[in-house]
Amino acid sequence: MSEFGKAIRHFWALDWRTTHLNHGSFGATPMPVLAAQDKIRQEMERAIGDFFVSQLSQRLRAAAAEAAAYLDAGAQNIVFVDNATSGIQAVIGSLALGPDDEILINDQTYNAVKNIARHAVQRCGAKLVEVTLPFPAQDDEAILAAFTKGLSGRTRLVVLDHITSATAFLMPIDRMIAAAHAVGTLVLVDGAHGPGQIDLAVEKLRADFYCGNFHKWIMAPKGAAFLWARREHQAWLHPPVLSHGFGSGYIAEFDWTGTRDPSAYLCVPAAIAFRKSFGDHKIKSRNSALAAEASAYLAKIWQTRVGGPEPSVTSMRLVQLPNINCSADELRVKLRRDHRIDVPVNALGGRLWVRISAQIYNEMDDYRRLALAVTQLSG
């Protein structure tokens, strides 16, 4: 589509001498959204006392209400956090665990989240159970079967990725949540990559907790994410940093954890408005189609394969690389340094893979450059 790709790159401050295929890791905030953030910061600095004492609480709740409407989630169930990992820390850190309890994760759980769970069970003598998911997974049934083997009557909490980070798999989340609830366990969804990449109705998922980022596919500034919690769990949830609101309830505790720059939170509505100016559904369908076309093209050129169940509606794909005599880290450095291509490279199942992202500033020529660079390095 002519309104995407090179035609709109002026909206970003990215250095376009580099081919950017890594939106999924850190996002990229458009300059109109950064301008909205700067305006909020100027308002804050002009009247510090009034901003923090009189305005902030109301403005946070107004921003949360707009975010909740976009996510199809109740505004009273959403609080802002710095990133999805912070929200996950809040949930696991608030959970009262005993020696007979288990937390269930899997081998594709994000490493930072694994560390949070590991720390929690070590403190109280509980057990961390990690199941191995099939890779490359060919269908949802195989994923579900592997997951359910880890459930037991001792499982207190299940941590599920909505879209996995390293492999870009869209999990059969509805069925996994149902299976976990069938044995009476709580479900925490790591939705770091969900908002803005796929259609998302948080309330309808029926998880107990959902943490997601705004800075990735919504394209808000860094430091903007959310925690959603079902009403019946909010009384025992606390932020990782306790402050003056302790004991005053879920929203009061999370909305104030000390003096900080709240501008990333407050311009989430500006990021949503930027997306809507192009058409939110149009962005998702275009990015998904581009990711599918690009991954199929790369696999054909390299004579390899696309990882993960197909079809997928995500804007990220995993593609196996041809044989290259270097490590994942070495290859990523070579691509960035020698070819000016930014793309994640992971070692999975004894092979190297790239995880490509497709954002509205990308077009097929970006992936053709990647194909050529890898072919040269493998020759």
Description:
By secondary structure, this protein is α/β, with parallel strands linked by helices. It folds into two domains: 5-29 and 279-378, Aspartate Aminotransferase, domain 1 (Alpha-Beta Complex); 33-273, Type I PLP-dependent aspartate aminotransferase-like (Major domain) (Aspartate Aminotransferase, domain 2), CATH 3.40.640. Helix content is 43%, strand content 16%. It has 14 helices and 13 strands. It has helices spanning 23-26, 31-46, 48-71, 84-94, 111-124, 140-148, 173-182, 202-205, 250-255, 263-266, 268-278, 280-302, 328-339, 364-378; strands at residues 19-20, 78-81, 102-106, 127-131, 155-161, 186-191, 209-213, 225-229, 306-307, 316-320, 341-342, 345-348, 351-357. The protein has a seven-stranded mixed beta sheet with strand order 2-8-7-6-5-3-4, with helices on both faces. Strands 9-10-13-12 form a four-stranded antiparallel beta sheet. The chain has a two-stranded parallel sheet with strand order 1-11. Helix 2 packs antiparallel against helix 3, helix 4 packs parallel to helix 5 (111-124) and helix 12 (280-302) packs parallel to helix 14. The radius of gyration is 21 Å and the shape is globular. 45% of the residues are buried. The model has no long low-confidence stretch (mean pLDDT 96).
